[in-house]
Structure formats: structure tokens, C-alpha cells
Amino acid sequence: MSAPLLEVRDLRTEFRTRAGALRAVDGVSFSVGQGEIVGLVGESGSGKSVTGFSILGLIEPPGRIAAGSIRLEGRELVGLSHRALRGVRGRRVAMVFQDPAATLNPLLTIGRQMRLALSAHQALGAEAARARCLAALRQVGIPDPEARLDSYPHQFSGGMRQRVCIAIALINEPRLIVCDEPTTALDVSIQAQILSEMRKLVRETGVSLIWISHDLAVVSALADRVMVMYAGRIVERGPTRETLRAPRHPYTAGLLASLPAAIPPGAPLSQIAGSPPSLIDAPPGCAFAPRCPRAAEPCRAEPPWSEDGARAARCHFPLEAGAP
Fold this sequence. Notes:
Elements: E1 6-17, E2 20-32, E3 37-41, H1 48-56, E4 63-72, E5 75-76, H2 82-88, E6 93-96, H3 100-103, H4 110-119, H5 126-139, H6 145-148, H7 158-170, E7 176-180, H8 188-205, E8 208-213, H9 216-222, E9 225-230, E10 233-239, H10 240-245, H11 250-257, E11 305-308, E12 311-314
Parallel strand pairs: 3-8, 3-9, 6-7, 7-8
Antiparallel strand pairs: 1-2, 1-4, 4-5, 9-10, 10-12, 11-12
Helix pairs in contact: 4-7, 5-7
């Protein structure tokens, strides 16, 4: 087997607050292979986006990476200088953010913004740079790219602006793209089109994706593997189809049970009881135990990983197939 493109080991990212250190990411470990799409899911505040920002080196004070390793193509990123990280961001790893209107500069044409991203890492002539920009726009399905290069962001729809952001992320041909809920603000039909384009891009270019989302339906349609986060930790991981069809962790099962599609018409929506714990003063043992219907005395201790082939859940009492 080839070496993973990305290896994250025991990552811990903290933010200083008046009440103490808020541990947003707490001992996270995973890898991403070449040309693989990995979904990272969980409710708001679970640590998904902070994990993505940590990979890009975008954590700034009062935040810091307190411990762990992030290796991209065998190169350690934790501890690199700002200058060295700027050489990696955009060139080897890129990010697509949730809100394209906040990502794009309203005062610059799309072509100008693409050329700026290109010139940050490569010295190309005007014609070569224009050709690269046009190719990137075609890759993401922008019609009439020659005319669109001279357009401004406000002249695009929300879906087209997000396609432009993806094209900018692709323009320096990175090996990994971290996508932070890039389709959340789009309607379902546009969302489906972008997911189709992303699958096509992975097949054609071999780029790897980390797709961060709270939407299990989106992840199920896109990702090869899924990792479920809760209170800063990964609590379950495995192939997407098997994990979402028969979850092993009670939290994953609760997320699936709360989907509107899982509720009979007219029945009240299901929900996970309680609230996520404080990341400043987390309870001992399993962080999900106060909300878990299966919790028992052993859950006061740190839960072990229960592994079954490619499947794994961090739980004292993992669910079996068909279990409630």
C-alpha cells in the first residue's frame, strides 16, 4: 500500500479563555490516502472546522496547536514558520470555505483573483496564466469562462461563486483540498451539481478531499470514508456506506435517527437529549455519556477503541448490527 498523503496523529488544538484552556480538538488521529474523499461530520462545536484550520496552519492566537503531528506528503507541518506555511498553503493543500461571498474580493475581477492565487506560487507569463485560469474554471463547470474572467463576484449566483472558489483552490494543483461545509448555503439542486463536479474532479485529477459537514446526506453521497466527531474527538470511523447503515457509536446512531427522512410522516422529530459538554471542563471518561441511553458505570473511564476491520468506534458499549 502507498503511504498516506496526510497523516494526523494525536492532534490537540486549544484556545485560551478567561475560564481556562478550551480544547477544541483533543487527541485526533486519522489519515487520508491519495485520491480519497474523507468526510468529517458532527454537530456545531464538535471540532470539525478547527481540525481543518489546524491542517492549513490557520490557527492564530489565542488559539494554538498544543500537541500532535500533521504530516503532508511526509513533511511535518506543525512548527513550520509562517513563511514556510505560506509556501504550502495553496500549493500542496488548499481550503474551500463555507461562504464564497466572504472569500472573494468584491472589488477585483474573478480573473484578477485567480491570477493572484497563481502568482503566489508560480511565475507564469500572461498567456500561460490565463490558460491556467480558464482550465480551472472549465474544471468546475463554469460556462463561457473567457467572458467570466472579467466578471466581478456580484455578477455570479451563490452556486457559481462557490465554483469559482473551488477553481481558485485548484489552480495551483494541490494534492489535498479541505472543504469546510462549502454547500451549506446552497439549495439542494445546486448542491447536487457541485457534489457531482467534486467527484468528477477527484477521478480526473487524483486530488484528495476532506469534506467537513454536519449534513450526513451530503457526506453519504460523496465520501469514501467517514469520521464522526463529538466534543473535539473522533468517536467513530469507517467506510461511509457501512458506517451510516449500521453505526457502532450511540452518538452516530442518534445523529442518523434525528434526520427528518428517518421519521414517519406526522411523527415528532427525534433528537439527542441534553447538550454537548463544555470543552473547558469536560467530564471524565466518555464525553457523550451524560447524553447516552446506554451509559453505565464503566463510561466514567476513558472509552477504548472497539475495532472491527475497517470499522472502529470509541465506546465501552458499541452497538451491534440492528441494535437500538
